[in-house]
Amino acid sequence: MSKYLMNKFIHHVNMNEAAEKEYKSNPHAYVQKWEKGEKLKLAAEEREALCKRDYGKLYALGAHPFTLWSFTEAIWVHEVPREQLVKDYKEKAAKAGYPDFKT
Amino acid sequence: MAEIVSIVGITHNPFMPRLFKQPNRPPGCAKVLERIDMMREKLRQAKPDVIVAIGNDHLHQFFMDNMPAFMIGKMDAYSGTFYDEIREFGLPTHRVPGDLEMSDAIMEGAFDRGVDFAYSNELTIDHSIIVPLTFVRPEMDVPIVPILTNCIAPPLPRPKRFYEVGQAIRAVIDKLQTNKRIAVLVSGHLSLEVGGPRQFERKLMDPNFDASAVGWISQGDVNGAVNHCSFDQLKQSGNMTHGFLNFIMMMGVANASKPSYAEGLDAGFPAIPFFSWEAS
Question: Which candidate from B63, B64, B196 shows the least CB-CB separation from A98?
Answer without folding.
Answer: B196
